Amino acid sequence: MTNYPFLSYRLLHFKAQLVDMNIVILDDYQDTIRKLACASRLEPFSAKVYTNNVKGISQLVFRLKDADILVLNHGRTQITRQILEKLPKLKLIIQIGLVGPHLDLDACTSAGIAVIEGHESPTATAEFTWALIMSAMRRLSQYVGMLKHGGWQQSGLKRAAMPANFALGCRLAGKTLGIWGYGRIGSLVAHYGKCFNMHVLVWGSDASRKKAADAGHDVAQSREELFKESDVLSLHLRLGENNRRIVKLDDLSLMKNTSLFVNTANAELVDTDALVCALNRGCPGLAAVDVFDSEPILQGHALLRLENTICTPHIGSVDQESYETHFCAAFDHIVNFTEGKPLPILNPQALQFRQIKG
User: Fold this and answer.
1) Same-domain check for residues 21 and 37
2) Beta-ladder partners of 47
3) What's the whole-model pTM score?
4) Within this chain, do residues 101 and 202 fall inside the same structural domain, yes or no?
5) Both 235 and 127 in a single domain?
6) Is residue 69 one of the residues assigned to a domain?
7) pLDDT tier at 1 (50, 70, 90 boundaries)?
8) Phi then psi for 77, rounded to 5 degrees?
9) Given this model, what pLDDT does residue 250 score?
10) Residue 131 domain boundaries
11) Of 149, 218, 232, 303, whose CB neighbour count within 10 A is largest?
12) Measured between alpha carbons, how far is 230 from 283 in angstroms, rounded to an integer?
């Protein structure tokens, strides 16, 4: 876990008052935040919780214009320099989950806006990934959908290009589970694979491969081997400038026509057009996707139209336990901020800019 400097706004002589604090929480799509056990901590404050999102910058700025504190729910809303420049009252952003490309951290710093980063929910995402793998490999989504329309023991997967008996689904035992990225989530998924008697094959950075080897897993000799050998290939990379759209058509085309490609990590790791093309060609045979380039996705999205794809609405890290943990911590930060107590600031330079601006 990253250690951040604990710094206090008390030093800057603008200790906040409870009655003056305006808090905005964005993108509570499932309308859960006010129902959390820890929500009572918000009662002393003026807090607005939005359950829908807006696309236009002007609409978003209107929502945020009076905010002193902004709570971002994962990466559901892009906060750019252009937006931050229109929010002179904003002093603190609390990120649920990890800070990513959706938040311009440099712009926050130069605007004197402190940022507090949350943490991952490795168990929630790993368990969800495994649920997708099991559902896809046994064609559960397709069978359930057909049953609701009167189809008994019919998965609906009948495209001529599919392998013989592809619609039946298959077991996991004895299959090869490919893991690209052996971090906190990837290592849990690998462990689940072992528990299901799968052969685990790992690829990633030098450090990632060494960690996997030390844990007793096989390490792929190349990226190409990972794609060729995997019956299930699951991405678990953290997005950075060096791996944006790293999964391309050439990679996907190496996969078997019976294999499953899984992405619960980040949509921008994958060339989406290439994934659609590869699935239409039949290699890989299936995909399970929880993350999309633009969210919420539109009904006509190409992946939603494919019969050999399971799409879920970016809920991999969302469960009751993680929400209680994440928002409890966020609300504690809000209370500590208003009381001038030290906070784990991700960008301590922001306090200097705030002091200079007065």
Assistant:
1) yes
2) 23
3) 0.89
4) no
5) yes
6) yes
7) very low
8) -130, 135
9) 98
10) 122-311
11) 232
12) 12
Looking at the structure, tell me whether residues 302 and 283 fall in a common domain.
yes
Q: Tell me whether residue 230 is in a domain.
A: yes
Do residues 240 and 140 both lie within one domain? yes
Asked whether residue 143 carries a pLDDT value surpassing 50, the answer given is yes
Pairing mode, strands 69-73 and 92-96: parallel
224 and 246, same structural domain? yes
Count of the separate structural domains present in the chain: 2
Give the model's pLDDT for residue 77.
95
| pLDDT tens string 68-103 | 999 999 999 999 999 999 999 999 999 999 999 899
Q: What's the whole-number mean pLDDT along residues 302-317?
A: 95
Task: Using the structure block, give the residue that is written with the tokens 């299959």.
Answer: 175
